[in-house]
Amino acid sequence: MSTEGIVSGVFKYAHTELGVVIQLQPGLSEIEKTALLALADAANWSPNAHPPIEAITSKVASHLRGDLKKAIQRLKRRGYCLPHPTRGGITWQPTHAGLEIALSLTRSRSTAYP
Questions:
Q1: Backbone phi, then psi, for 16, in 5-degree steps?
Q2: Which pLDDT score is estimated for 108?
Q3: What is the spatial distance between Cα 70 and Cα 82, in angstroms, rounded to a whole number?
Q4: The CATH number of 28-108 is which of 1.10.510.10, 1.10.10.10, 1.20.1250.20, 1.10.3470.10?
Q5: What is the largest CA-CA distance in the chain?
Q6: Residue ranges per domain, the chain?
Q7: Other C-beta atoms lying within 10 Å of the C-beta of residue 98
Q8: Contact 101/23 with Cβ under 8 angstroms?
Q9: Helices 30-42 and 65-78, interaxial angle, to 10°?
Q10: What is the number of alpha carbons within 13 Å of residue 53 lying toward its C-beta?
Q11: What is the mean pLDDT of residues 48-71?
Q12: Residue 74: closest CA among 34, 44, 46, 47
């Protein structure tokens, strides 16, 4: 996915490898990027899986888990993940756009998590 031409505060559109057009939102913080990568990894890179928050937060250091939970909520507002209510609590499902962003982040990073 190409992110060329993104100006801070301006929304652009990009074609992904799957042919999906997504709206790129600039300004993802490092904790939001980490949360997106942890969610994708916990879901085994599937848009149909919905892991619980405990599975997502177990991917990072314990002192970052509270920030990661807040970042998941911000990603929900951006449309990169969806809550999936279950009997045992809320699970989180990555969207196609969220998985595409996570895939582009893994290509640009040498390590997945801090």
A1: -95, 175
A2: 73
A3: 14
A4: 1.10.10.10
A5: 44
A6: 28-108
A7: 25
A8: no
A9: 90
A10: 17
A11: 93
A12: 34
Q: How confident is the model at residue 12 (pLDDT cuts 50, 70, 90)?
A: very low
pLDDT of residue 80: 93
The least confident of 18-32, 42-56, 75-89, 90-104 is 18-32
Output b/e per residue, 17-42; b: 16+ Cβ within 10 A. Answer: eeeeebebeeebeebbbbbbbbbbbb
- pLDDT, residue 110, reads 58
- Residue 10 is predicted with a pLDDT of 40
Report yes or no: 42 and 55 within 8 Å, Cβ to Cβ. yes
Show the beta-strand stretches assigned E in the chain.
Answer: 12-15, 21-24, 81-86, 89-94
pLDDT averaged over every residue in the chain: 80
For tokens 């920030």, the residue is 67
Contact yes or no for 102/40 (Cβ under 8 A): yes
